[in-house]
Every structure is written in structure tokens, then in C-alpha cells.
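Re: the 355-residue chain
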Amino acid sequence: MASRRQISVGGVTVGGGAPVRVQSMTCTPTSDAAATIAQIGALQEAGCEIVRVSVPAADDVEPFRRIVAGSPIPVIADIHYDWRLALGALEAGAAGVRINPGTIGRAERVARIVESAAAHDAVIRIGINQGSLPRKLRELAAEDPARALVEAAQQYTVDFDEWGFGDYKVSVKSSSVPVTIAAYRLLAETCDAPLHVGVTEAGTRWSGTIKSAVGIGALLASAIGDTIRVSLTADPVEEVRVGWALLGALGLRRRGPDLISCPTCARTEIDIVSLAEEVERRLQTDPRFARLPITVAVMGCRVNGPEEARHADAGIAGGSGEGVVFVRGERVATVPEDRLVDELFERLEGMDLPA
């Protein structure tokens, strides 16, 4: 597997040993700069490090300029079809542009975008999607979609290298998880550019999270991926939360609490489902805890519960109508079931927690 070179996206390092970065994309109208800036703020609060904003028409370039000026994180312009929009976005201060050369057209148009990106110290993502491959690769796509995605990307990485432009990253996405995994594994063998990983058009919050966990998770577990986006038909803040959860599950990065909770079984003597959901909700929404790298356990019986709770920073283990609260391995209270969550959070508030 080729080693990854490092690039800077608006001051955020990508590739070359940098942490895997979490990205998302706004869904507000770009023409409404204030709403888009507000959404970017919410995304940053959730942990988004690079954000993509679509620039669908010439009238969107000026509000895009205001968005870039008001954004707390680097902004990438998402461009399709009209190469001139890429030039306008770069002149407006974009940290980079995402283009699918298959929708941009002739090579000289792509070359103009590359020339402008170099002049503005911006990056380019060569974003190849299975649904918008160049016509000449569609026959191959029917036989071997993963190879078609990679060949489409390689046609442009070769050009970029020949033009002396190295500040690019590459993505080869499909809505099919197996195709996505196969394409990235093939690309990683030959390309040394940073790779942006995701399963495109993954679906709703529930189904899209499953597809993304399998596809992105499999690639990250193989050390493939420098930036990620979880594409969900949902509030983009959920994309960021899922992205961080994936990184945390793989031990790559940690942001926010890790909730350990047991599945229900016949031994469960309390309403473990409601307890776990309430603890999770409060951990996610309380600003005192939402960013802390702590582990909290919610266990439902006397078999594994006490030991699992002891291994967490804090936790509860239920019995018949009551439960035990643990803090760093020590039993600190036994309270009725309806007091368990409040007692847990009171104990958390009194702890010396990591930043």
C-alpha cells in the first residue's frame, strides 16, 4: 500500500500521519449565507473539521464568499458541470474545491481549475462517484464497477501530477458497500494522495449509519482513509456524530462520551432500555459532558453489570427496582430505579473529569 503524502486544507493537515479528519456538508441554501454559517457553527460544535458547501449557480458565488469569511472551519466548494463556478469559488476564498471531472468535461477546463487552485493555495478533491462516471468507462462499470471508479480517478491523478499539482485528495464512492471497499483498496495500492472515504448516498440515519459503519469502518481498520464523511439523509450534525463514533470504536480518535450498555435479557430486572436512552441523551446534550472522553456504563443485571460498571469512569448496575452507582470502580450509592440517572449525573458533576 502506498504511503500517503500530507496536504493542508485551510490549515487542517490531512494525510501523512495526521489524524483522520471528520467532514460533513451543509444542506441549507447557499444563497442564505446566514443560515449556512449557522449550520456550519453547529457542525463545528459537533466536531466537524472541514465542511463542504455546494455552489450550484453563479448567483451563489457572492453568498459563498460571505460563508467562507464567516466560517470557523475550512470550507470546500462542491462543484458540478460549470467549471467557471470552481474559479469563482476559489477566488472567493474556498480552501478547496471538490470536482467530479466526469461532470466538468474537457481536460482544458479541469486544467483551468487546477491552475486557479495553485494560485490560491487551495486543494482539490477528485471526487469520483459511480453514478457520474465518464461515458467511456460505463461499459467497464457494468462489468467491474470498482475498477471503473479507480480508472476514472487515475485518469485525473496522472494529469494533476504531470501539471505539477500535488495538493489533491481522491475519493471513489459508490452506494454499494462492497464496491466502495473494493475500489478504495485498489486505489490505495497505487495512489499516494490522501483518500477521502465514504459510502455515497448511504441512506437514512438508521440504514445509512449501518452502511457507513461497515464500509468506512472496514477501510479505516485497514489503515485506508484520511478524511471521512458519513452521508446520511438526515441533519448533517448526525453525520459528524456517527463519524466520531466510528473513529472511537476503532480506537483512532476519541471525542465525547462512550456509553457502554448491555442488551436486555430475562435476567434484566429494571427498564434498562429507558435508562440507557436517557443517559445517552443527557451525555450528548449537556455541554459539560458532550465533548469529554469519558466512559459511562449502564448495566441491567447482577451478572456482568457490576464488573462492567467498575471498568467505566462512572456507571450504574441495576437490580430489582434499584441500582448501584459506581465511580472509578468504587460503589458509591444504592438508590431506587427512578433515582439512578439523576444520581449518576450528580456523581459525574462532582468528579475531576478529563478535558
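The first strand starts at residue 7 and ends at 9.
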